[in-house]
Amino acid sequence: MKKWLNGFCAAFSMYSTVPMPQIQWREDTMRYLFCFFPWIGLLTGGLCLGWAWFCRAWQVGALLFAGGMTLLPLIVSGGIHLDGLVDTADALYSRRETEKKLEILKDPHVGAFGVMACCGYLLASFALWGQVYETPRLIGLCCIGFFLSRCCSALAVVSFPAAKNSGLAHLFSSYADKKTVRICCGFYLLLAGALLVWKLLWLGAAVLITIGFVFVGFWHLCRKQFGGITGDLAGFFLQVAELAVLAVCTFGGIMG
Fold this sequence. Notes:
This protein is mostly helical. The protein contains eleven helices and no strands.
């Protein structure tokens, strides 16, 4: 039981700004970390739903609503995943060989492509959330993306080969109980998928198919461009998956 509790504390300590009891970072501490990683997505989605309810109750405009929905995930995560998006954009657009791309991922400095990717991502997120405000029944469906993206990101870390023999992805993957993490995250995905299809058949199915395509595309990206996965790449996937779910829900609402 203590190992599971340590895994919970480790997940929220590493991937969120939620205050947690101090723990020692040992192998057994990180064994079940990724079993609880998707729970941060539940927290993020819950806070966003709370903000949506507040905006509706107090008749807040679409711009302020969209601003809150764009900022809340960054506040909860501390921006750790967006940092992965920025670093990955710099590495990809360098168009250099694999080793050089991996060096760019480790570089703490931000390049021009990273800045453009960050600005473009936040602008797209803001615009899509602003549009979703017109179809409030879909806000909950959009928020499930925070959970689904973390389930798939955790599966990627424990299933894809590491691009290098160092870094957080390699460390966490090495110490993780991979079988248990896959079972937990697979169960989460099945449960969330069944709920989505039950609530909104066609749009729920479209969200799941989109997540699947993004996951497969991410696997090919990791294998071809970097030779495996890193922590930055996992963060990149998470952000892209969330934006893809938001886009599908937004345009599904427009068409439906």
